[in-house]
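Quarterly update, task 2.4: iron/sulfur cluster-bound model.
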Amino acid sequence: MADPLLEVRDLHVNFDTYEGTHEVLDGVDMTVEKGETVALVGETGCGKSVTGKTIMGTLPRPPGEIVSGEIRYDGTDVLADQAVHDRVQRERMSMIFQDPMTYLSPVFTIESMMRDVVKYHDRETVTWRDLLSEFLQRSGEEDDDIRKRSVDLLRRLQIPDPEGILDRYPVELSGGMRQRVLIAMALINQPEFLIADEPTTALDVTVQDQILKLLKERTENDDLTMLYITHNLGVARKIADKIYVMYAGSIAESGPTETLFDAPLHPYTRGLLDSIPKLTGFESEGIDGSIPNYTDPPSGCRFHPRCPAYMEGTCDGVNPEPFDVDDDHEVACYLYEDEPSTSEAMEIADTEIQYRRPQRAKARRDGGGDENGD
Ligand code: SF4
């Protein structure tokens, strides 16, 4: 097995707002090996982007606060020293953000922004004096090279007329084009570690497919390691070697991609899979309820108010630790606290989770509650 490039241990992050303290990350654990693509999957609001920003060192503080935990990048504890974290981020990491308009300046052309990203990405600060002196000493050869690299990258991201796009401003581009420009900016310096936060959500499925292929090609050919954040399990299956399923600030289940699809164990993972629209005409079951309020999260397992396998007196006590089911397959759920084999665990899941689902759906259809009192 390769060395871990990134290790996140027991990471707790709070946000202080006028409503009170939101306990958003509740002990996140994650390992990303060199050259691997790992997907972080979960519903909107479950803490995926906060995890990505904390790893990247761009968590807004305040209101965000890293309460405890460890993030080791290539063996270095980056949370111990902000200057080290900033340097690692500038020199070795890159991030694709969800909302392109927030991250693209409306007053510069795409070419000008691409050039600045190439020239200044590893600088701690850039002053007006630096910009002026760079401008006066500008070499046409260097600019031509950056333009050529930009055109090449934009073309591979399926942007029509990449030469023309470089001379335009973000407001002149559609949302999908802006997103692809942002992806190009994140890739142009060939980072070692990329955090891609829902990078294809704004794109249509054919372009999405091309971009997933390009990212996959980069991870295979350029030694790129990637943390891919998405709510879409289908996308995660296409791109990731390993999946972490996140619920309300902690990891519910993790394992190699195919293992997770062949043997999903956590009731939340099963609910997410059930929520994928089917073409067979059967009604999808989905998950009742929504992500909890982080100022007053449920006790014990945070999923318990929505869980079809909830066990009173057990699940609402202490948040379960991850239990090993198989090599690299972990699930944080009391159903598996005896650490059964995969086949035994599947039997438990089929009995305790799927078995109750029809009863729950029927109770809902009949207009009543169910055995959990929902
Ligand atoms: Fe459901 Fe209990 Fe497992 Fe949480 S620990 S997912 S409430 S069975």
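Highlight for this quarter: The longest strand covers residues 4-17.
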